[in-house]
Prior knowledge:
With 351 residues, the protein is mainly alpha-helical.
Amino acid sequence: MFTSTGSWGLYKAPLSKSLLLLPTVLTVLLTVLLPQYQDLFIYNLQAVRQGKQFWRLVSGRLICLDLKDTFCSSLLIYNFRIFERRFGSHKFASFLFGAWILSAFVDLVLTEALHFMFELQVDVLPAGLLGPVFALFVPFYNSIPRVQVTQLLGHVSITNKSLTYIVGAQLLTSSAYMWIVACSGLIAGMLYYSNKLAVQKFLCVPEWVARCGSVLLEPVFSDSEPTAEAPLGMGATLDIQRQQRMDMLDQQLLLSQLAHLRRNTQQQQAQTGFLNWNRFFPTLRHRGQNQHQEGPQPQQPPYTHPPDNTAVVEEQVARLMEMGFSRMDAQEALRASNNDINIATNFLLQH
């Protein structure tokens, strides 16, 4: 799936790489070397309401002041880098920017609603780029296919998306009021992703800013192109990824069926005593036939292949025989693979 979601590190994801490195470095500086400046980056809503310190809506929502929050959010950004590859850095930056603006507004609305309805006064929220991180769960849930990997205890399904959700749950439980930031991020992500209020039109990164950012970020944070072959489906559309996955599963199923058929045939030959040794040891078989034998030998009835309704294509049989396989093996492989010469060739080479 993406997650999901792929490998290739941070290739073609310079913005994701910058979001991993810069906030982490600044968090370490503020927590270890410059703790006296942490007060400038506290997400203090009371100071925003009463002291009119609106700049805290910016400084308090850029850098995490907790190392565990930094670690979890970095893991999530690394997993969500697939969106930058799929949609491009400009659209990815526009989503983060729009979600960041909308989540700040939703933070104020939610805290005021809690104070009005439940008399719960929330003055300080967790700092950092957390709203956009939670907002990315919206496209992750809607656009990344869910593929089951295994099951625990026969009931709990483990998918390719489970680890990302577990990291999100860990981040959610890191502080008392993180759930407010999470709700704000999810609401902002749904508003921007659905675009029902046309927020994508005015909450987007201008083209000239994107070009400037590309000039500044790509030389510094871009990774070299990987030399290894790309994993299945990477960079393709969702439909192509699903089709490739289904083709791979079909090939694996046909190969397993062919292997099962081969084992059953060999067992039947061993039980009836008509094992065709010439298929496995042709030189020994011919050598035994050239030796002098006394008296006539009892003639064994010829081996007959179990009847199969699948007709093989003689042209494909000839192609496999040109590769060195026997006619009977070629026919058997083509019948089991429904005349797919690629699958038949792979099986004959592996067995």
